[in-house]
Structure prediction request, 342 residues.
Amino acid sequence: MLFLFGTTIHPVHVYTVRHIMNQNGFLRVLMLAGCIALTVLLTLHLRPHVINYMVTPTGSQADVSNMAANKEVGQVKAQDTTGNLFNPLQLKEDFGSGPLSIVRQKGYVTDLSSLDLDRLSTDELLMTIHSYPDNADVLCRRKIRMGKVGDGGWEICDDPDIRPRAPCIIYSLGINYDFSFDDDAAKLYDCHVYSFDPSMAKEKDQYDRSEKVHFYKIGLDGSTNKNSKNWQLYTLGDLRKKLGHQNSTIDVIKMDIESSEWGALPEMASSGELAKVRQLLLEFHVVSASRDYLLPRLKAMQAIERSGLRKFYAHKNHACVTTIPGFPVARTMCYEVHFLRR
Prediction:
């Protein structure tokens, strides 16, 4: 059996060509070759295109004016070479039934940047703040945990286009005397790691823990100030200037600063400082269900997404387990969410 451009030519064609050639039938050979060429062209034209799709249950949720129709849309998603997911085809709406249907209907898991959050009900805000930080937007093919396997460790995306490469800079905000992430990241990526925690009273104001790990007893906030505990706090921009990094990309920022993220994140986004960060690893602390509490915090998450960062990994801290009215499974008050920029 012969193959031409991936198309099979039946053995009878081969036999016929040989037979005619033996009789020197040049004209007949020419006519037969034309028929075979036509068959090949028709086969190539009709061959179906093959695309590998990944079916996911999440919707684009982009049209606020038609939120009821878009909150939970089953989609066929293809994956591009960067790991981003796009939507070539939308299928019919499917909230399903049973206790989880309300979560699917009211909890948005992606595309916050296109939503008018002010128009969401309090129930939608509550379901979303316990759904969005628990789901990923993009694929990181290789995650490597720096530090402890339990609390204190964090995942760095090690894909070739995003991994830290020396000379590189990592900011680690919130230490609580656990340098396991900082030490591993400095050792394994050969980065300079700057560790910050104003609450560590036993530590010197500043010292080098090693050649690559540098500790500062200062913290992050939405403004540069001294708080009621006499802790020196900086905006991200002022912190970068203090260290001479104002013109440098920050490869990774790790933040676990016990609810102070909510004051710092809006300023980080509005000042443009988040645009200079390649990976952001942070713990969101969610401790209330009131509308006044939920709305600005979801807007902070929205600002991260609008800066171009996308979630590649999410983890619920088991130390903060809680129950949420209307949510049929356990939640947490501490979501460890990992973002990257491609």
Notes: The radius of gyration is 28 Å. The first helix runs from residue 11 to 22. The CA atoms of residues 147 and 180 lie 4 Å apart.
